[in-house]
Design brief:
Elements (H helix, E strand, L loop, with lengths): L5 E5 L3 H12 L3 E5 L8 H4 L3 E2 L10 H12 L5 E3 L4 H14 L2 H29 L5 E2 L3 E4 L3 H9 L1 H7 L5 E3 L1 H7 L10 E4 L3 E3 L2 H14 L3 E3 L3 E5 L5 E5 L3 E4 L1 E4 L4 H6 L9 E10 L10 E3 L4 E6 L2 E10 L8 H15 L5 E11 L6 E4 L6 E5 L5 H16 L17
Parallel strand pairs: 1-2, 1-14, 2-10, 4-18, 6-16, 14-21
Antiparallel strand pairs: 3-9, 5-9, 6-8, 7-8, 11-12, 12-13, 15-18, 15-19, 16-17, 17-18, 20-21
Helix pairs in contact: 1-9, 1-12, 5-9, 5-12
Length: about 425
């Protein structure tokens, strides 16, 4: 395929930024369009973990059977906003389908294939942009509150992860204490992922990527997309400030992708799965690596400005007011993990773009092959950002892709 295309990327989160950089590295002229500053949305507020271990989809029969009980438990990580339920119906049907054993195994294979090549792609952009200084390679911990829970996790999902080439080490409470003496004795042991990395500033990585992109001729337009016309050889894009013409368009706008594509007749069961975080004063309880409490589905991650406690899965409209109960639960769990009353420096809520089968959508649209799709990364947006950009670039360059894109085609819905 011809080089030097004029490409518009809609969405300036970590997926859009990574994609823009890979396209730029291939010689294309790229416009990056978003109403907000680069990295100001969900990419700013995540737990900061490059989760090499995230090879098991959340769509599993056992998990599906646990959902009713979780919804009745106020302290569970899962909640659904009542008025959001009608919007979720296509997602719900897709989730049930994705939980079938053969589809779950397909999802495991697809995530594993992506995660095997993700670190190499990350390193290219992290080093080129100087963002590597914001990354730490200290592994991560996943802890369980009871001996019974630890054993079940060890015999179940951890064995699955091992089968999908994840490096794990099982630790006693004393061994956990040696690694992280600042933690309280709330756990019965856990798992150490030695190959996991984390960033001490997720928003900072986005800023580094945006600066590198602009320094090399990329154009950032902080504007709303009003209309997209893909008919014809080129794509016409109307923003709140101008009219653009592009040879190709990449849709990487997270949850907003659904609403931008629907007028084109492209319907994908993408939903808003909101996550929360609190920034805490670390005091004398600084951590060296991310620590998750698996029972509560939360992470404590050391950041430049303190500790970030992040988690919950709240299916709700993206612009809904924060639920204070979610915030209080995060604080309670952080207190249990740290054995004290941490001071809150700031709080945040943002929306993950989630698909029924936990797999991102990556590749050309069926209806309009000149529109590339790059969204739906759920809990692993940071982890899969760079490899997504590389795959989009490889496809548009006519190259053999590092991973089979049919695994992530929108046609699966």
């Amino acid at each position: 395929m011809s080089k030097n295309l004029n490409i518009a990327v809609i969405g300036a989160g970590i997926i859009g930024l990574s994609t823009a950089l890979w396209l730029q590295r291939s010689g294309h002229q790229v416009h990056l369009i978003d109403p907000n500053p680069p990295g100001a949305g969900t990419s700013f507020g995540n737990a900061g973990v490059f989760a090499d271990f995230a090879r098991l989809p959340l769509s599993k029969l056992k998990t599906m059977c646990q959902i009713p009980g979780m919804l009745l438990d106020e302290e569970s990580p899962l909640s659904i906003q009542g008025r959001y339920v009608p919007t979720m119906l296509p997602y719900g049907l897709g989730y049930v389908k994705a939980c079938l054993p053969e589809n779950y195994l397909r999802g495991c294979h697809a995530l594993t294939e992506l995660l095997k090549v993700a670190p190499e792609a990350d390193n290219v952009l992290l080093k080129a942009s100087g963002a590597i200084e914001l990354v730490r390679s200290n592994g991560s911990l996943a802890l369980l509150g009871t001996k019974e829970g630890f054993q079940k996790t060890k015999d179940g999902p951890m064995q699955e992860r091992i089968e999908h080439d994840v490096s794990v080490e099982f630790l006693t409470p004393d061994q956990v204490h040696e690694l992280e003496p600042g933690l309280a004795d709330f756990h019965a042991g856990g798992v150490y992922y030695p190959n996991s990395r984390h960033t001490v500033n997720p928003g900072g990585i986005c800023q580094k990527y945006a600066e590198h992109f602009q320094q090399n001729g990329g154009i950032v337009l902080q504007e709303d997309v009003v209309h997209i016309d893909p008919d014809g050889e080129s794509i016409k894009i109307e923003t709140s400030a101008r009219h653009l013409t592009a040879d190709r368009l990449v849709m990487a706008a997270g949850v907003a992708s659904r609403y931008l594509l629907e007028p084109l007749g492209i319907k994908i069961p993408l939903v808003s799965e909101r996550g929360y975080h609190l920034e805490l004063e670390s005091g004398d309880q600084g951590l060296s690596r991310p620590v998750s409490w698996l029972d509560k589905s939360i992470f404590l991650t050391p950041m430049l400005n303190g500790l970030r406690v992040a988690g919950t899965a709240e299916f709700a409209y993206a612009d809904s007011p924060p639920d204070n109960k979610r915030i209080q639960h995060l604080l309670k769990f952080a207190k249990n993990m740290l054995g004290g009353q941490p001071d809150i420096k700031s709080r945040w809520v943002g929306s993950r773009p989630s698909t029924p089968d936990s797999l991102p959508v990556i590749g050309p649209s069926e209806k309009y092959p000149n529109i590339m799709l790059a969204f739906g990364h759920g809990h692993v947006g940071l982890t899969l950002s760079s490899i997504t950009g590389r795959l989009i670039s490889q496809h548009l360059n006519g190259e053999k892709t590092s991973v089979d894109l049919s695994l992530f085609s929108s046609s699966r819905f």
